[in-house]
Amino acid sequence: MRQATLKAILKVHTNFMISIIISSYKPKLFAACISSIEQTIGVPYEMIQIENPGLMSIAEAYNKGIAQAKNEILCFVHEDVVFHTPDWGKRLEQALADKTIGLLGVAGSKLMGNAPGAWWDFGAVNYVQNIIQHKKGQIQHNRTFSEGNGSTIVEVAVIDGVFMASRKSVQVMFNTDVPGFHAYDLSYSMELQKRNLKVVVADGILLEHFSSGNIDPGWFYAMDHFYTNYCNSLPVAVQADPQQSRYEEEAIKYYILNAPTKKLQRKYWRIFFRRKPFAKFNIAFLKTYILG
Q1: CA distances from 21 to 5, 50, 51, 54 (A)
Q2: SS3 assignment, position 72
Q3: What are the structural domains of the chain?
């Protein structure tokens, strides 16, 4: 098996504070990304590229980057992005000077329900984001913030992994029990929550993301590991939502109906049944997936 290659591309600066860590497998995307960072970050930084064409999980890749990082601020970025905010590095340094903040992103949710679901499965009313997103041939600027000077920071439950920034001094590694390329962001958010540090979304850093991700079999396996690890710490809610139980029910039903193996389907049906023993869904599931 090929060995993973770790590259540290160091900008020659003194007193630099930010280490940018990218798990990379497409050279053209990486080149465009680092060019965008160089033009917009506005502060000295260190770039750490982890060449990872499917050799390891993204959690393992990011942990390798953390081990190599020389700076206090750790910034984990997808390679298929470009930045639109000038001097966004200064805004990042200012935000993370608040030691009560453990993790900062550009998109997330105020609610992470007690279910194996993505952050966007728990109600649009709980979304907090400022990101230009490409999806199905369309470009959308998803912004939930009111117009302002870009200094607004909102506490959330979990953030999306397209951009995540933390501090090395909090000494939090990614949970390598979560396999593949999904749910690492949710688990990292939960690790910071467990340490009573705030997870936040800031509107002062605008980036453009050229892919929207996909729900593949790997997503279901990763979510199973995530939920197994953190179900006892869920839900996490920044604010009460009367629709929470409905979001959770729909997320579990989606997982059951689309999971790639009967073992996973049955596992999460049992969880659903314990919560909703008289739901019509149970009869339909038994007929189709157990008896059928």
Answers
A1: 14, 7, 11, 17
A2: coil
A3: 5-243 (3.90.550.10)
